[in-house]
Amino acid sequence: MTGRGLVAVLVLAGLAVTPAVADDVLHGHARRGAVYQTLAADSLTPRACAALCDADGTCQSWVWTRAELTGSEPACSLLSAAPTPYPAPGRVTGLSQAIASRIDAAAERPPSDREIPALRATLDGPH
C-alpha cells in the first residue's frame, strides 16, 4: 500500500490513536536526523502521523509539519531513532507507543544496587 493509501486508511478507519502519555507529544517542536520516510497528504494530522509511526516497527519517533511550511500539504516524517527535540514552530513531534512504554517501564523500576549510592550522594550533597 502506498503512503497516501495508508494515511487515508488510518484516518478513515479511526485508527489514529492517542499516544501513550500526553508528554510523548510536543507541539512546536521537531527532531533532526534519522528520517527514513516522509509522507504528505491533505488529510494528514499529528494523530494520523502518530498512528503511522505506531504501525511501523522501525519507527521510534515522528514529526508532523503543517502545510504552510512544506509549501503544499502537511507532512509526516518517520524517524528510526528518537533524537532530542528542539523548538520548531509549526511542527509537532512524538514518540512511538513502543518507545514511550519502554521509557515509562524503565522510569518505574527500582534503582539498582549500583545506582543507590549515587542517588544517596546526590541527596546528601549541597543543594
TrEMBL record:
InterPro entries: Pan_app. Residues 105-117 have a biased composition (Basic and acidic residues). Residues 30-78 form the Apple domain. The lineage of its organism: Bacteria, Pseudomonadati, Pseudomonadota, Alphaproteobacteria, Maricaulales. It comes from the Bacteria. Keywords: Signal. Pfam families: PAN_4 (PF14295). This is Apple domain-containing protein. Residues 104-127 are annotated as: Disordered. Residues 1-22 form the signal peptide.
